[in-house]
Design a protein that fits this description.
Blueprint lengths: L11 E3 L4 H4 L5 H9 L5 E3 L10 H10 L4 E2 L6 E2 L14 H9 L6 E8 L11 E9 L12 E9 L7 E6 L8 E7 L2 H7 L3 E8 L3 E8 L7 E5 L1
């Protein structure tokens, strides 16, 4: 993240009073916030680009530069093992997107997030999640054709607590399908109801997503298959 000096002052402050002056630079939501809440303001600071990678990342990027290629239809990348920027000089938007997908994120990390969907009256219910993410290029003995591993668990609200998502993303979606395991309505509810729903999603090219839902309840075991 950009680092701002504690002594740095904002270039200007946007309030409801000077909204018209900056309206062309604001989103609809920002404009509405300024109109509805007189105390709301936006402090605008200069932009800074202070990010840098460790030398090892630059070495991997340089070693594999020019070797990467798009899979059929842009649905994956080929000839990439360690580089976090497979297309240093992207020639298309698809290549730029793959640079974003493979970007360096420290190998693996845990992210704690809270989603706050706010209603018109100001009420909201936080959705709290814990996400574990690991890039396959940094995982010892990772399977072939693997981009990343992802696991998410919801801890709040109570109606959603225990819901989990496990995702395996391939580098080349033409060669291998993405697999996603979705556990609902959650561990807590599963215990209370002696069963829960496990949905297995698989995405491949060109069939798209296929879904298999299994009820783990002892009294109601069912399987549903759909495809697009």
């Amino acid at each position: 993240m950009p680092i701002r000096s504690p002594k740095e002052k904002p270039l200007y402050t946007i309030t409801a009073a000077n909204l018209q002056q900056y309206q062309g630079k604001l989103t609809t939501g920002q404009i509405e916030m300024l109109k509805r809440f007189p105390e709301y303001k936006m402090l605008v600071y200069p932009s800074h680009r202070t990010a840098a990678l460790e030398q090892g990342e630059y070495d991997h990027i340089k070693a594999e530069a020019g070797k990467a290629a798009l899979a059929e239809g842009g649905n994956g990348i080929l000839n990439v093992k360690n580089s976090s920027v497979p297309f240093p000089m992207p020639k298309s938007g698809v290549e730029a997107i793959w640079n974003h997908m493979t970007r360096h994120r420290g190998g693996s990390f845990i992210r704690y997030t809270s989603l706050l969907p706010v209603q018109v009256n100001g009420a909201f219910t936080p959705v709290v999640r814990i996400e574990h993410i690991a890039m396959a290029s940094k995982v010892k003995n990772a399977e072939p054709n693997r981009l990343m591993y992802y696991m998410r668990t919801d801890t709040a609200p109570s109606s959603q607590a225990g819901t989990a998502l496990l995702d395996y993303e391939p580098l080349d979606q033409v060669k291998g399908a993405a697999t996603r395991l979705d556990l609902q309505p959650g561990v807590a509810s599963c215990h209370a109801r002696a069963g829960c729903l496990l949905t297995i999603h698989r995405r491949s090219v060109p069939t798209g997503w296929r879904h298999k839902t299994i009820s783990t309840a002892s009294t109601a075991r069912r399987t549903v298959l759909t495809g697009n």
